[in-house]
């Protein structure tokens, strides 16, 4: 959800000018001892020490802290990177987001170009911008390129917190900052002048160890015994820290009673929104997982279009999302094990993605792009948390995580874009799927329906035909489908239609009723004519009432009637098993 840093061997990330205004002295005598601009040198996170708050492997994070100084503001001077996305977010001291500026919301300096706007020149050379962090509350009209930190969640005053600069997916061949370096951060007066010496007095410059220690000291989510995770995994929208804590730790058969009690209590609606230094421009789904349920886990979903910037296009493309990713994280340490970005995800027909998570030893031989799978390592821990990110959805795209109004409605809103996961016991079980880019690895096996429907005729409707030359025949039809077994999902029946055949006996031949209401000339009785009855379906589609009325009065004579049901699997009631038959006489 997003903060620093990378494990050994991944990209190195850094920290941007930490504004730790520990104390604001009023004396001006120490002014000569400090930088009058209050500009700080840059420090970097040590990737061997810090990988917390569920970061995204594709992102680079530069962070700083602030403490409100009356009459002051933070000034940020930078250049738009050659990358997929950049932004600034500000947070309170509980790591919850307060405000943000996405790249498209930051206007360029006069004469410049914002290369992130769809259709803009991504190779523009004039790409400078200036942004500000204002310590005051949100005004009725926002100032240009300004974030506000003075109002906390719930409308309470906020005086300190963190801000983060993010860069996602730099263009191929460029460094992690997209070739434009780190923005410069200074403290200035609200009108743009240099701050007085008293403000800069005792302005302490942070050390690498101090920054890393502060971030690394954040507590992760403990792993309960047994490891969290149901089978199949339960995907939820991330709302806030308390909910994610309870839903992750208690997401198992032993913890379910406590989880349900929490969700029905008043505490459930507390905690605000966001946390873990989450990005306002992202929305997240997460699912606790555990190897106890299976050594191989596959997740399938339809994925949105996105502006692929590797290799770098000259014009900024559009898409249903700016970016998405799928990550496997440790629950306790919050570190990511591995992530697959949108442009690293293998797509199958219909824009479906299949992510396979396992240890290297349990990696199935068919878990490779040629077979339609994107593989990620599980990591050494018994449990974990899968995270699916959606960033900056197009207003016309209705299936993004951002459109989900509350937990419990994820699948309803996202439809095919909602992830569905399934465990396999081991790689051998998964390899039985073979190598097919068109199959669904999460579809439950179904039994094959070979059972025909069962149809009955109302005796009263047949007996009444003797006195009514235009009778109405009635009855019921039931299709049981297939029952399944312990390994296959039972499938309920599904009626397609009910057909009626009526004929008058003519010696050894038959005269069949036709759709227009008349009878055929005498013909062999094996060449029946079937007419469709009217159906009134019952709930579920496996049962129905049927009626049939000839369009014209029937001529006198001895008649026979047969009815058959046909289900969606194509099964028809066979004559030698037929129960839907009767005789009647028209006088």
Q: Please indicate the percent range of residues in DSSP E strands (runs of 2 or more).
A: 25-35%
Q: What's the number of helices?
A: 7
CATH topology of the largest domain: Jelly Rolls
Radius of gyration: 34 Å
**Tally of separate domains:** 3
Mean pLDDT: 80
Order the strands across the largest sheet as they lie in space: 9-10-17-12-13
Can you give the helix content as a percent range?
under 10%
CATH architecture of the largest domain: Sandwich
Task: Supply the helix-strand structural class.
Answer: mainly beta
Write the layout of secondary structure elements.
Layout: E1 59-67, E2 72-79, E3 83-92, E4 97-102, E5 128-134, E6 146-148, E7 160-170, E8 184-189, H1 197-200, H2 208-216, E9 236-237, H3 241-249, H4 256-263, E10 282-290, E11 296-302, E12 323-329, E13 336-341, E14 347-348, E15 352-358, E16 374-377, E17 383-391, H5 410-414, E18 420-424, H6 427-431, E19 454-457, H7 459-463, E20 473-478, E21 495-506, E22 509-512, E23 531-532, E24 534-537, E25 543-548, E26 557-567, E27 581-586
Parallel strand pairs: 5-6, 15-16
Antiparallel strand pairs: 1-7, 2-5, 2-8, 3-4, 3-7, 9-10, 10-17, 11-15, 11-18, 12-13, 12-17, 14-15, 19-20, 20-25, 21-22, 21-23, 21-26, 24-25, 26-27
């Amino acid at each position: 959800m997003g903060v620093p840093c990378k494990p050994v061997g991944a990209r190195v990330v850094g920290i941007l000018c930490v504004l730790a205004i520990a104390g604001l002295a009023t004396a001006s005598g120490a002014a000569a001892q400090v930088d009058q601009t209050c500009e700080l040198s840059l420090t970097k996170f040590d990737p061997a020490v810090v990988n917390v708050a569920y970061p995204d492997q594709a992102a680079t994070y530069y962070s700083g802290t602030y403490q409100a100084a009356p009459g002051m503001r933070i000034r940020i001077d930078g250049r738009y990177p050659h990358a997929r996305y950049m932004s600034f977010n500000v947070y309170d001291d509980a790591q919850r987001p307060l405000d943000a500026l996405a790249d498209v919301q930051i206007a360029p300096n006069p004469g410049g170009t914002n290369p992130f706007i769809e259709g803009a020149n991504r190779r523009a050379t004039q790409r400078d911008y200036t942004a500000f962090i204002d310590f005051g509350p949100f005004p009725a009209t926002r100032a240009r390129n300004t974030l506000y930190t003075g109002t906390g969640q719930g409308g309470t005053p906020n005086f300190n917190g963190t801000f983060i600069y993010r860069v996602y997916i730099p263009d191929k061949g460029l460094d992690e900052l997209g070739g434009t370096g780190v923005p410069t951060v200074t403290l200035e007066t609200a009108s743009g002048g240099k701050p007085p010496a008293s403000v800069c007095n005792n302005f302490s410059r942070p050390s690498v160890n101090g920054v890393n220690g502060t971030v690394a000291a954040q507590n992760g989510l403990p792993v309960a015994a047994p490891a969290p995770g149901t089978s199949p995994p339960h995907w939820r929208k991330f709302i806030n820290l308390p909910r994610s804590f309870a839903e992750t730790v208690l997401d198992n058969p032993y913890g379910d009673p406590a989880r349900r009690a929490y969700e029905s209590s008043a505490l459930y609606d507390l905690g605000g929104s966001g946390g873990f230094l989450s990005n306002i421009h992202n929305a997240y789904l997460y699912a606790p997982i555990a190897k106890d349920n299976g050594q191989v886990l596959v997740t399938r979903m339809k994925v949105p279009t996105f502006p692929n910037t590797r290799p770098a296009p000259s014009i900024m493309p559009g898409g249903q999302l700016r970016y998405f990713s799928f990550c496997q994280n440790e629950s306790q340490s919050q570190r990511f094990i591995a992530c697959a970005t949108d442009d690293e995800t293998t797509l199958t027909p219909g824009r479906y993605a299949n992510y396979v998570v396992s240890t290297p030893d349990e990696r199935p031989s068919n878990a490779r792009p040629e077979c339609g799978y994107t593989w990620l390592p599980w990591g050494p821990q018994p449990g974990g948390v899968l995270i699916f990110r959606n960033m900056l959805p197009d207003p016309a795209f209705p299936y993004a995580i951002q459109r989900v109004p509350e937990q419990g409605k994820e699948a309803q809103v996202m439809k095919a874009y909602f992830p569905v996961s399934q465990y396999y016991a081991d790689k051998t079980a998964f390899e039985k799927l073979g190598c097919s880019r068109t199959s669904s690895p999460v579809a439950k096996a179904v039994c094959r329906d070979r059972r025909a429907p069962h149809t009955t005729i109302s005796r009263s409707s047949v007996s009444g035909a003797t006195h009514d030359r235009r009778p109405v025949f009635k009855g019921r039809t039931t299709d049981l489908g297939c029952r399944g077994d312990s390994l296959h999902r039972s499938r309920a029946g599904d009626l397609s239609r009910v057909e009626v055949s009526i004929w008058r006996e003519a010696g050894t031949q038959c005269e069949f009723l036709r759709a227009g209401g008349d009878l055929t000339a005498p013909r062999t009785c094996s060449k029946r004519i079937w007419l469709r009855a009217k159906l009134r379906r019952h709930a579920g589609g496996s049962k129905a009432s049927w009626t049939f009325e000839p369009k014209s009065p029937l001529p006198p004579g001895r008649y026979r009637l047969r009815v058959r049901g046909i289900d969606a699997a194509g099964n028809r009631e066979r004559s030698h098993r037929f129960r839907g038959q009767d005789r009647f006489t028209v006088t």
